[in-house]
Amino acid sequence: MNKVILMGRLTRDPEVRYTQTNNTLVASFSLAVNRRFAKQGEERQADFINIVAWNKTGEFCSKYFKKGQQVGIIGRIQTRNWDDEQGQKHYVTEVVAEEAYFADSKREGELGASTEFENSFGTSIAQNAEFQVDSSDDDLPF
Fold this sequence. Notes:
Number of helices: 3
Order of helices and strands: EEEEHEEHH
Low-confidence stretches: 108-115, 122-135
CATH superfamily: Nucleic acid-binding proteins
Radius of gyration: 18 Å
Number of domains: 1
Number of strands: 6
Largest sheet: 5 strands, mixed, barrel
Strand content: 35-45%
CATH architecture: Beta Barrel
Mean pLDDT: 82
Strand order of the largest sheet: 1-3-4-6-5
Helix content: 10-25%
Distance between the termini: 27 Å
Shape: globular
């Protein structure tokens, strides 16, 4: 099964382009997704994940998503490769968005976003719930 659920902030506005063959809309953007844990004494790190949204999902993202906004994405991981003009091979791994949701509250002071994403996956995912790890355990890989 290839299923990805992400929540993060857009690092830039979605870029829209159309395919040459059948003029299909594709929106691409990047999400900054916080890692769940931080090493003691260090700042929490984020991963920057490339997202691609096609057709209606891409149209939705391009219309309503803006840099800095917190969003939820459900999709699948996809890898692809190509050769450039110099004959050098390039590889890319990205998430193909199948569903896209707002994750910010609508206005300052509201109790939070009541979105389909939150309703589907629970408030613990939407609120980035955390738990403590006993770092004295020698079996931890980090």
